[in-house]
Here is the input.
Amino acid sequence: MSTPALLKIDDKEIACPIMTGTEGEKAIDARNLRKDTGYIFYDQGYGNTGSCESAITFLDGDNGILRHRGYAIDQLAAHSTFVETAYLVIYGELPNPKQRKQFGDLLRQNAHVETQMQRLFEGYPKDTPPMAMLASLVASLAGYYPDLATNNFEKDLQQFDLSAAMAISKIRTLGAMIYRHTRGLPFMHPKDLPFCDNFLHLMFSEPYQDYVAIPEVTNALNLILLMHADHEQNCSTSTVRMVGSSGANLFTSLAAGIAALSGPLHGGANAAVMQMLQSIHDEGDDGTRFIAAAKGGSKSNRLMGFGHAVYRNFDPRAKVIGEACGVVLKKLGKSDPLLDIAQNLEQAALKDDYFISRKLYPNVDFYSGIIFRALGIPTNMFTVMFAIGRSPGWIANWREVASNPKGRIYRPRQIYVGPVKRDYVPMAQRG
Ligand code: CMC
Here is the structure.
Protein backbone atom coordinates (compact mmCIF):
# COMPACT_ATOMS: atom_id res chain seq x y z
CA MET A 1 0.00 0.00 0.00
CA SER A 2 1.56 3.38 -1.06
CA THR A 3 1.74 6.39 1.23
CA PRO A 4 -1.27 8.65 0.51
CA ALA A 5 -0.79 11.91 -1.38
CA LEU A 6 -1.19 14.97 0.84
CA LEU A 7 -3.18 17.89 -0.46
CA LYS A 8 -3.08 21.16 1.48
CA ILE A 9 -6.05 23.50 1.11
CA ASP A 10 -5.92 26.58 3.38
CA ASP A 11 -4.78 25.08 6.68
CA LYS A 12 -6.28 21.68 6.16
CA GLU A 13 -4.27 18.68 5.00
CA ILE A 14 -6.18 15.98 3.18
CA ALA A 15 -4.78 12.50 2.59
CA CYS A 16 -5.80 11.03 -0.77
CA PRO A 17 -5.07 7.33 -1.34
CA ILE A 18 -2.74 6.37 -4.20
CA MET A 19 -3.94 3.78 -6.72
CA THR A 20 -1.51 1.73 -8.83
CA GLY A 21 -2.41 -0.20 -11.98
CA THR A 22 -0.87 -3.52 -13.05
CA GLU A 23 1.53 -1.66 -15.39
CA GLY A 24 2.55 0.74 -12.60
CA GLU A 25 0.20 3.57 -13.62
CA LYS A 26 -0.43 5.88 -10.68
CA ALA A 27 -3.51 7.82 -9.70
CA ILE A 28 -4.58 9.97 -6.79
CA ASP A 29 -7.96 8.73 -5.59
CA ALA A 30 -9.98 11.93 -5.22
CA ARG A 31 -13.41 10.36 -4.85
CA ASN A 32 -13.91 11.78 -1.35
CA LEU A 33 -12.34 15.19 -1.96
CA ARG A 34 -15.59 17.10 -2.48
CA LYS A 35 -17.29 15.39 0.44
CA ASP A 36 -14.32 16.19 2.72
CA THR A 37 -13.46 19.71 1.49
CA GLY A 38 -16.12 21.08 -0.92
CA TYR A 39 -13.47 21.21 -3.69
CA ILE A 40 -13.48 19.33 -6.99
CA PHE A 41 -10.60 18.79 -9.40
CA TYR A 42 -10.97 20.84 -12.58
CA ASP A 43 -9.85 18.95 -15.68
CA GLN A 44 -11.53 20.24 -18.83
CA GLY A 45 -11.94 17.40 -21.31
CA TYR A 46 -10.89 14.86 -18.63
CA GLY A 47 -7.37 14.74 -20.11
CA ASN A 48 -5.86 13.94 -16.72
CA THR A 49 -8.75 12.10 -15.13
CA GLY A 50 -9.06 8.35 -14.67
CA SER A 51 -12.78 7.66 -15.05
CA CYS A 52 -12.65 3.92 -14.41
CA GLU A 53 -10.52 0.87 -13.73
CA SER A 54 -10.33 -1.28 -16.86
CA ALA A 55 -8.64 -4.59 -17.69
CA ILE A 56 -9.04 -4.35 -21.47
CA THR A 57 -6.35 -2.14 -23.01
CA PHE A 58 -3.07 -0.70 -21.77
CA LEU A 59 -1.84 2.42 -23.53
CA ASP A 60 1.36 4.29 -22.73
CA GLY A 61 1.27 7.35 -24.96
CA ASP A 62 4.72 8.59 -23.93
CA ASN A 63 6.37 5.38 -25.06
CA GLY A 64 4.10 4.45 -27.99
CA ILE A 65 2.80 1.25 -26.35
CA LEU A 66 -0.61 -0.30 -27.04
CA ARG A 67 -1.60 -3.71 -25.67
CA HIS A 68 -4.93 -5.50 -25.61
CA ARG A 69 -5.32 -7.80 -22.60
CA GLY A 70 -1.52 -7.82 -22.36
CA TYR A 71 -0.79 -8.61 -26.02
CA ALA A 72 1.18 -5.98 -27.98
CA ILE A 73 -0.62 -4.54 -31.00
CA ASP A 74 2.26 -5.37 -33.36
CA GLN A 75 2.12 -9.07 -32.33
CA LEU A 76 -1.63 -9.15 -32.85
CA ALA A 77 -1.17 -7.42 -36.21
CA ALA A 78 1.40 -10.01 -37.26
CA HIS A 79 -0.39 -13.16 -36.05
CA SER A 80 -4.06 -12.57 -35.29
CA THR A 81 -7.24 -11.74 -37.19
CA PHE A 82 -9.94 -9.19 -36.49
CA VAL A 83 -12.40 -11.81 -35.21
CA GLU A 84 -9.86 -13.46 -32.93
CA THR A 85 -8.76 -10.08 -31.55
CA ALA A 86 -12.42 -9.10 -31.08
CA TYR A 87 -12.87 -12.23 -28.95
CA LEU A 88 -9.71 -11.40 -26.98
CA VAL A 89 -10.79 -7.81 -26.35
CA ILE A 90 -14.30 -8.83 -25.27
CA TYR A 91 -13.62 -11.98 -23.26
CA GLY A 92 -10.09 -11.35 -21.98
CA GLU A 93 -8.29 -14.41 -23.44
CA LEU A 94 -7.36 -15.65 -26.90
CA PRO A 95 -10.02 -18.22 -27.87
CA ASN A 96 -9.26 -21.95 -28.01
CA PRO A 97 -10.43 -23.71 -31.23
CA LYS A 98 -13.86 -24.52 -29.77
CA GLN A 99 -14.46 -20.98 -28.49
CA ARG A 100 -13.26 -19.53 -31.80
CA LYS A 101 -15.69 -21.74 -33.73
CA GLN A 102 -18.62 -20.88 -31.46
CA PHE A 103 -17.89 -17.17 -31.77
CA GLY A 104 -17.53 -17.44 -35.56
CA ASP A 105 -20.81 -19.38 -35.78
CA LEU A 106 -22.63 -16.72 -33.77
CA LEU A 107 -21.24 -14.00 -36.04
CA ARG A 108 -22.39 -15.86 -39.16
CA GLN A 109 -25.82 -16.71 -37.76
CA ASN A 110 -26.46 -13.07 -36.89
CA ALA A 111 -25.17 -11.39 -40.02
CA HIS A 112 -28.56 -10.70 -41.61
CA VAL A 113 -30.72 -7.63 -41.10
CA GLU A 114 -34.48 -8.29 -40.71
CA THR A 115 -36.57 -7.43 -43.78
CA GLN A 116 -38.69 -5.08 -41.69
CA MET A 117 -35.57 -3.28 -40.48
CA GLN A 118 -34.29 -2.97 -44.05
CA ARG A 119 -37.32 -0.78 -44.73
CA LEU A 120 -35.87 1.88 -42.42
CA PHE A 121 -33.48 2.71 -45.25
CA GLU A 122 -36.39 3.94 -47.40
CA GLY A 123 -36.73 6.89 -45.03
CA TYR A 124 -33.13 8.09 -45.40
CA PRO A 125 -32.27 10.53 -48.22
CA LYS A 126 -29.41 9.11 -50.32
CA ASP A 127 -27.03 11.79 -49.07
CA THR A 128 -27.66 11.17 -45.35
CA PRO A 129 -24.22 11.08 -43.64
CA PRO A 130 -23.31 7.37 -43.27
CA MET A 131 -22.47 7.72 -39.58
CA ALA A 132 -25.85 9.34 -38.87
CA MET A 133 -27.53 6.35 -40.51
CA LEU A 134 -25.34 3.88 -38.65
CA ALA A 135 -26.02 5.46 -35.24
CA SER A 136 -29.78 5.45 -35.72
CA LEU A 137 -29.87 1.93 -37.21
CA VAL A 138 -27.83 0.51 -34.34
CA ALA A 139 -30.12 2.27 -31.83
CA SER A 140 -33.05 0.64 -33.66
CA LEU A 141 -31.68 -2.85 -32.92
CA ALA A 142 -33.10 -2.35 -29.40
CA GLY A 143 -36.54 -2.29 -31.01
CA TYR A 144 -36.01 -5.41 -33.14
CA TYR A 145 -34.41 -7.46 -30.34
CA PRO A 146 -36.14 -6.18 -27.18
CA ASP A 147 -35.27 -9.31 -25.18
CA LEU A 148 -31.56 -8.45 -25.55
CA ALA A 149 -32.03 -4.79 -24.72
CA THR A 150 -34.11 -4.57 -21.55
CA ASN A 151 -32.10 -1.80 -19.83
CA ASN A 152 -31.63 -4.20 -16.94
CA PHE A 153 -27.98 -5.19 -16.58
CA GLU A 154 -28.71 -8.58 -15.05
CA LYS A 155 -31.08 -9.63 -17.84
CA ASP A 156 -29.00 -8.08 -20.63
CA LEU A 157 -25.83 -9.80 -19.41
CA GLN A 158 -27.55 -13.23 -19.43
CA GLN A 159 -27.74 -12.90 -23.21
CA PHE A 160 -24.47 -11.04 -23.65
CA ASP A 161 -22.78 -13.62 -25.94
CA LEU A 162 -25.63 -13.29 -28.40
CA SER A 163 -26.02 -9.51 -28.24
CA ALA A 164 -22.23 -8.97 -28.54
CA ALA A 165 -21.90 -11.19 -31.63
CA MET A 166 -25.07 -9.71 -33.07
CA ALA A 167 -23.79 -6.17 -32.61
CA ILE A 168 -20.41 -6.85 -34.29
CA SER A 169 -21.94 -8.81 -37.15
CA LYS A 170 -24.84 -6.46 -37.82
CA ILE A 171 -22.77 -3.27 -37.57
CA ARG A 172 -20.64 -4.81 -40.35
CA THR A 173 -23.72 -5.73 -42.45
CA LEU A 174 -25.40 -2.35 -41.82
CA GLY A 175 -22.18 -0.60 -42.85
CA ALA A 176 -22.24 -2.39 -46.22
CA MET A 177 -25.97 -1.68 -46.62
CA ILE A 178 -25.36 2.03 -45.97
CA TYR A 179 -22.77 2.03 -48.75
CA ARG A 180 -25.21 0.38 -51.17
CA HIS A 181 -28.06 2.68 -50.15
CA THR A 182 -25.99 5.82 -50.84
CA ARG A 183 -25.17 4.41 -54.30
CA GLY A 184 -28.73 3.30 -55.07
CA LEU A 185 -27.63 -0.37 -55.27
CA PRO A 186 -29.78 -3.33 -54.13
CA PHE A 187 -28.79 -4.94 -50.82
CA MET A 188 -26.95 -8.27 -50.91
CA HIS A 189 -27.85 -11.09 -48.53
CA PRO A 190 -25.00 -12.23 -46.22
CA LYS A 191 -23.36 -15.54 -47.10
CA ASP A 192 -21.78 -18.28 -45.03
CA LEU A 193 -18.35 -16.66 -45.33
CA PRO A 194 -15.59 -15.51 -42.97
CA PHE A 195 -16.24 -12.07 -41.45
CA CYS A 196 -14.14 -9.92 -43.79
CA ASP A 197 -15.03 -11.84 -46.96
CA ASN A 198 -18.68 -11.50 -46.07
CA PHE A 199 -18.25 -7.74 -45.72
CA LEU A 200 -16.56 -7.52 -49.13
CA HIS A 201 -19.36 -9.64 -50.63
CA LEU A 202 -22.05 -7.42 -49.02
CA MET A 203 -20.28 -4.34 -50.41
CA PHE A 204 -19.19 -5.42 -53.87
CA SER A 205 -21.21 -8.42 -55.14
CA GLU A 206 -23.76 -7.72 -57.85
CA PRO A 207 -27.09 -9.57 -58.27
CA TYR A 208 -25.66 -11.89 -60.95
CA GLN A 209 -21.99 -11.53 -60.23
CA ASP A 210 -20.51 -12.59 -56.91
CA TYR A 211 -17.51 -10.72 -55.54
CA VAL A 212 -14.48 -12.97 -55.86
CA ALA A 213 -12.36 -12.94 -52.71
CA ILE A 214 -8.79 -11.72 -53.17
CA PRO A 215 -6.62 -12.93 -50.25
CA GLU A 216 -4.55 -9.70 -50.19
CA VAL A 217 -7.70 -7.60 -49.92
CA THR A 218 -9.16 -9.80 -47.17
CA ASN A 219 -5.88 -9.68 -45.26
CA ALA A 220 -5.61 -5.90 -45.55
CA LEU A 221 -9.19 -5.49 -44.31
CA ASN A 222 -8.52 -7.86 -41.41
CA LEU A 223 -5.44 -5.86 -40.46
CA ILE A 224 -7.10 -2.49 -40.58
CA LEU A 225 -10.17 -3.58 -38.59
CA LEU A 226 -7.92 -5.26 -36.02
CA MET A 227 -5.90 -2.03 -35.69
CA HIS A 228 -9.06 -0.23 -34.59
CA ALA A 229 -10.38 -2.92 -32.19
CA ASP A 230 -9.93 -0.88 -29.02
CA HIS A 231 -8.11 2.18 -27.79
CA GLU A 232 -8.61 2.75 -24.08
CA GLN A 233 -10.79 5.65 -22.89
CA ASN A 234 -11.09 7.62 -26.13
CA CYS A 235 -14.08 9.91 -26.77
CA SER A 236 -16.43 7.26 -28.23
CA THR A 237 -15.51 4.52 -25.74
CA SER A 238 -15.97 6.88 -22.81
CA THR A 239 -19.32 7.82 -24.34
CA VAL A 240 -20.34 4.16 -24.49
CA ARG A 241 -19.35 3.77 -20.84
CA MET A 242 -21.11 6.96 -19.83
CA VAL A 243 -24.37 6.03 -21.57
CA GLY A 244 -24.07 2.43 -20.34
CA SER A 245 -23.53 3.66 -16.77
CA SER A 246 -27.12 4.91 -16.75
CA GLY A 247 -28.25 1.29 -17.22
CA ALA A 248 -28.79 1.68 -20.99
CA ASN A 249 -28.64 -1.53 -23.02
CA LEU A 250 -25.74 -2.48 -25.28
CA PHE A 251 -27.30 -1.35 -28.59
CA THR A 252 -28.31 2.09 -27.29
CA SER A 253 -24.87 2.59 -25.75
CA LEU A 254 -23.18 1.56 -29.03
CA ALA A 255 -25.33 4.02 -30.98
CA ALA A 256 -24.05 6.80 -28.70
CA GLY A 257 -20.46 5.65 -29.29
CA ILE A 258 -21.01 5.77 -33.05
CA ALA A 259 -22.32 9.34 -32.75
CA ALA A 260 -19.23 10.33 -30.75
CA LEU A 261 -16.93 8.69 -33.30
CA SER A 262 -18.42 10.67 -36.18
CA GLY A 263 -16.68 13.97 -35.34
CA PRO A 264 -13.67 15.12 -37.41
CA LEU A 265 -11.32 15.22 -34.40
CA HIS A 266 -12.06 11.56 -33.64
CA GLY A 267 -13.14 8.91 -36.18
CA GLY A 268 -13.89 11.48 -38.87
CA ALA A 269 -10.18 12.28 -39.12
CA ASN A 270 -9.48 9.44 -41.58
CA ALA A 271 -11.81 11.01 -44.15
CA ALA A 272 -10.40 14.46 -43.38
CA VAL A 273 -6.88 13.13 -44.12
CA MET A 274 -7.95 11.96 -47.57
CA GLN A 275 -9.67 15.27 -48.33
CA MET A 276 -6.49 17.05 -47.25
CA LEU A 277 -4.23 14.83 -49.40
CA GLN A 278 -6.58 15.18 -52.36
CA SER A 279 -6.66 18.97 -52.15
CA ILE A 280 -2.85 19.11 -51.85
CA HIS A 281 -2.72 16.91 -54.97
CA ASP A 282 -5.29 19.01 -56.86
CA GLU A 283 -3.43 22.22 -56.05
CA GLY A 284 -0.16 20.78 -57.32
CA ASP A 285 1.46 21.36 -53.89
CA ASP A 286 3.98 18.79 -52.66
CA GLY A 287 2.77 19.48 -49.12
CA THR A 288 5.16 22.36 -48.35
CA ARG A 289 2.45 25.06 -48.47
CA PHE A 290 0.10 22.94 -46.43
CA ILE A 291 2.67 22.30 -43.72
CA ALA A 292 3.39 26.03 -43.49
CA ALA A 293 -0.35 26.78 -43.09
CA ALA A 294 -0.78 24.00 -40.51
CA LYS A 295 1.73 25.74 -38.27
CA GLY A 296 -0.51 28.80 -38.00
CA GLY A 297 -2.23 27.41 -34.91
CA SER A 298 -5.73 27.44 -36.45
CA LYS A 299 -7.84 24.35 -35.77
CA SER A 300 -9.27 24.44 -39.29
CA ASN A 301 -5.81 24.17 -40.90
CA ARG A 302 -4.37 21.31 -38.86
CA LEU A 303 -2.33 18.60 -40.47
CA MET A 304 -5.01 15.94 -40.27
CA GLY A 305 -3.81 12.50 -39.16
CA PHE A 306 -1.11 14.13 -37.03
CA GLY A 307 -1.09 14.53 -33.26
CA HIS A 308 -2.97 12.57 -30.68
CA ALA A 309 -4.59 13.34 -27.38
CA VAL A 310 -2.52 10.68 -25.57
CA TYR A 311 0.41 9.62 -27.80
CA ARG A 312 3.33 11.98 -27.33
CA ASN A 313 5.49 9.54 -29.24
CA PHE A 314 4.63 7.59 -32.41
CA ASP A 315 1.20 5.91 -32.55
CA PRO A 316 2.14 2.20 -32.83
CA ARG A 317 -0.91 1.60 -35.06
CA ALA A 318 0.30 4.25 -37.52
CA LYS A 319 3.63 2.42 -37.79
CA VAL A 320 1.95 -0.89 -38.72
CA ILE A 321 -0.56 0.69 -41.10
CA GLY A 322 2.04 2.96 -42.70
CA GLU A 323 4.23 -0.06 -43.48
CA ALA A 324 1.23 -2.10 -44.68
CA CYS A 325 0.19 0.64 -47.10
CA GLY A 326 3.02 0.18 -49.55
CA VAL A 327 2.80 -3.62 -49.27
CA VAL A 328 -0.96 -3.67 -49.93
CA LEU A 329 -0.71 -1.34 -52.92
CA LYS A 330 2.11 -3.43 -54.37
CA LYS A 331 0.21 -6.70 -53.89
CA LEU A 332 -2.87 -5.23 -55.53
CA GLY A 333 -0.74 -3.87 -58.36
CA LYS A 334 -1.94 -0.32 -57.64
CA SER A 335 -0.16 2.97 -57.12
CA ASP A 336 -1.59 6.01 -55.40
CA PRO A 337 -0.17 9.53 -55.76
CA LEU A 338 -1.74 10.36 -52.39
CA LEU A 339 0.59 7.83 -50.73
CA ASP A 340 3.59 9.75 -52.10
CA ILE A 341 2.14 13.03 -50.78
CA ALA A 342 1.46 11.43 -47.38
CA GLN A 343 5.03 10.12 -47.18
CA ASN A 344 6.43 13.54 -48.15
CA LEU A 345 4.26 15.25 -45.55
CA GLU A 346 5.38 12.81 -42.88
CA GLN A 347 9.05 13.26 -43.72
CA ALA A 348 8.75 17.06 -43.76
CA ALA A 349 6.75 17.22 -40.51
CA LEU A 350 9.11 14.89 -38.68
CA LYS A 351 11.98 17.28 -39.47
CA ASP A 352 10.05 20.43 -38.57
CA ASP A 353 10.55 22.11 -35.18
CA TYR A 354 6.87 22.99 -34.86
CA PHE A 355 5.86 19.31 -34.97
CA ILE A 356 8.91 18.03 -33.08
CA SER A 357 8.50 20.44 -30.17
CA ARG A 358 4.79 19.62 -29.83
CA LYS A 359 5.44 15.89 -30.17
CA LEU A 360 3.08 15.59 -33.13
CA TYR A 361 3.48 12.28 -35.00
CA PRO A 362 1.28 10.47 -37.54
CA ASN A 363 -1.70 8.77 -35.92
CA VAL A 364 -3.75 5.73 -37.00
CA ASP A 365 -5.77 7.82 -39.45
CA PHE A 366 -2.83 9.16 -41.44
CA TYR A 367 -2.39 6.08 -43.65
CA SER A 368 -5.58 4.06 -43.06
CA GLY A 369 -7.52 5.99 -45.74
CA ILE A 370 -4.99 5.01 -48.40
CA ILE A 371 -5.61 1.33 -47.61
CA PHE A 372 -9.40 1.84 -47.59
CA ARG A 373 -9.12 3.58 -50.96
CA ALA A 374 -7.06 0.70 -52.37
CA LEU A 375 -9.81 -1.68 -51.21
CA GLY A 376 -12.39 0.34 -53.16
CA ILE A 377 -14.04 1.89 -50.10
CA PRO A 378 -15.13 5.49 -50.72
CA THR A 379 -14.07 8.32 -48.41
CA ASN A 380 -17.53 8.90 -46.94
CA MET A 381 -17.46 5.30 -45.64
CA PHE A 382 -14.11 5.55 -43.81
CA THR A 383 -15.56 6.42 -40.42
CA VAL A 384 -18.09 3.58 -40.78
CA MET A 385 -15.10 1.26 -41.27
CA PHE A 386 -13.59 2.67 -38.07
CA ALA A 387 -16.90 1.94 -36.28
CA ILE A 388 -16.96 -1.68 -37.52
CA GLY A 389 -13.40 -2.12 -36.25
CA ARG A 390 -14.03 -0.39 -32.90
CA SER A 391 -17.22 -2.34 -32.09
CA PRO A 392 -15.40 -5.03 -29.99
CA GLY A 393 -13.76 -2.36 -27.82
CA TRP A 394 -17.06 -0.58 -27.18
CA ILE A 395 -18.75 -3.90 -26.36
CA ALA A 396 -15.98 -4.94 -23.95
CA ASN A 397 -16.19 -1.57 -22.19
CA TRP A 398 -19.99 -1.71 -21.93
CA ARG A 399 -19.65 -5.17 -20.41
CA GLU A 400 -17.18 -3.90 -17.80
CA VAL A 401 -19.63 -1.19 -16.80
CA ALA A 402 -22.64 -3.55 -16.78
CA SER A 403 -20.92 -6.24 -14.76
CA ASN A 404 -19.38 -3.99 -12.11
CA PRO A 405 -21.47 -4.39 -8.96
CA LYS A 406 -19.87 -1.27 -7.46
CA GLY A 407 -20.35 0.81 -10.61
CA ARG A 408 -22.14 4.15 -10.39
CA ILE A 409 -23.65 6.46 -12.95
CA TYR A 410 -21.07 8.73 -14.64
CA ARG A 411 -21.76 12.23 -13.39
CA PRO A 412 -18.92 14.76 -13.64
CA ARG A 413 -19.10 18.13 -11.88
CA GLN A 414 -18.48 21.59 -13.32
CA ILE A 415 -17.36 25.06 -12.37
CA TYR A 416 -20.33 27.34 -12.98
CA VAL A 417 -19.35 30.63 -14.67
CA GLY A 418 -22.82 31.98 -15.58
CA PRO A 419 -24.76 34.88 -14.00
CA VAL A 420 -25.23 34.87 -10.22
CA LYS A 421 -28.77 34.74 -8.77
CA ARG A 422 -31.12 37.41 -10.15
CA ASP A 423 -34.88 38.00 -10.16
CA TYR A 424 -37.20 37.21 -13.04
CA VAL A 425 -38.04 40.30 -15.17
CA PRO A 426 -41.60 40.46 -16.61
CA MET A 427 -41.75 40.77 -20.43
CA ALA A 428 -43.15 44.34 -20.35
CA GLN A 429 -40.15 45.60 -18.39
CA ARG A 430 -37.50 44.10 -20.70
CA GLY A 431 -35.73 46.59 -23.00
N1 CMC B 1 -1.57 20.05 -36.91
C1 CMC B 1 -1.00 21.23 -36.49
N2 CMC B 1 -0.91 21.57 -35.20
C2 CMC B 1 -1.39 20.72 -34.28
C3 CMC B 1 -2.01 19.51 -34.65
C4 CMC B 1 -2.07 19.18 -36.03
N3 CMC B 1 -2.65 18.05 -36.43
N4 CMC B 1 -2.41 18.85 -33.54
C5 CMC B 1 -2.07 19.64 -32.50
N5 CMC B 1 -1.46 20.76 -32.95
C6 CMC B 1 -0.87 21.82 -32.13
C7 CMC B 1 -1.95 22.68 -31.47
O1 CMC B 1 -2.32 23.77 -32.28
C8 CMC B 1 -1.25 23.08 -30.20
O2 CMC B 1 -0.34 24.12 -30.52
P1 CMC B 1 -0.04 25.29 -29.44
O3 CMC B 1 0.60 24.58 -28.28
O4 CMC B 1 0.87 26.22 -30.17
O5 CMC B 1 -1.37 25.89 -29.08
C9 CMC B 1 -0.42 21.86 -29.82
O6 CMC B 1 -0.18 21.18 -31.07
C10 CMC B 1 -1.12 20.92 -28.87
O7 CMC B 1 -2.38 20.61 -29.43
P2 CMC B 1 -3.64 20.19 -28.61
O8 CMC B 1 -4.86 20.71 -29.28
O9 CMC B 1 -3.43 20.51 -27.17
O10 CMC B 1 -3.63 18.65 -28.76
P3 CMC B 1 -4.77 17.76 -28.24
O11 CMC B 1 -4.11 16.67 -27.50
O12 CMC B 1 -5.82 18.49 -27.53
O13 CMC B 1 -5.46 17.27 -29.58
C11 CMC B 1 -5.89 16.04 -31.51
C12 CMC B 1 -5.26 16.05 -30.12
C13 CMC B 1 -5.84 14.62 -32.05
C14 CMC B 1 -7.38 16.50 -31.44
C15 CMC B 1 -5.12 17.03 -32.42
O14 CMC B 1 -3.75 16.63 -32.49
C16 CMC B 1 -5.69 17.15 -33.81
O15 CMC B 1 -6.61 17.95 -34.02
N6 CMC B 1 -5.17 16.34 -34.81
C17 CMC B 1 -5.73 16.32 -36.12
C18 CMC B 1 -6.99 15.49 -36.13
C19 CMC B 1 -6.69 14.00 -36.08
O16 CMC B 1 -5.84 13.49 -36.79
N7 CMC B 1 -7.46 13.27 -35.23
C20 CMC B 1 -7.35 11.83 -35.13
C21 CMC B 1 -6.93 11.38 -33.75
S1 CMC B 1 -6.45 9.64 -33.76
C22 CMC B 1 -7.92 8.80 -33.98
C23 CMC B 1 -8.68 8.71 -32.73
O17 CMC B 1 -8.28 7.94 -31.83
O18 CMC B 1 -9.73 9.39 -32.63
About this structure: DSSP finds 19 helices and seven strands in the chain. The longest strand covers residues 5-9. Residues 231, 234, 265-267, 269, 294, 297, 302-309, 358, 360, 363-365 surround carboxymethyl coenzyme *A (CB under 6 Å).
